[in-house]
Design a protein that fits this description.
single chain, mainly alpha, 109 residues, transmembrane helix
Length: 109
Amino acid sequence: MSKERARRRAEREAERARAMRANERRQARRARRRALLSRLVPRPVRFYRQGGLLARRHRAQNAVAALGFVIVQVVAWLVWGSFPISFAVLVFSLLLVPVVVTLAFDRRI
């Protein structure tokens, strides 16, 4: 009877050893795959913008300034239509936008 128990115990231990080796092979394969993927595929970079009251206010002010700039360009193009005048309005607007933004939106909060 004890020989039979010893044989069964040896079979269980052999089966457990096979299962452990198979598990180790699977884990090694997963680790190699993860390492390969991490080298090939860059991790996504996420940009989070500020969500506070001041940040929302500055985004709104910047949007208004950009919209005003675009409206001035469209009106200049529709009114005069010539390229040199439209280009002059573009250059003048680029120089004037920081001044208008500073005067219109006092950023000292």
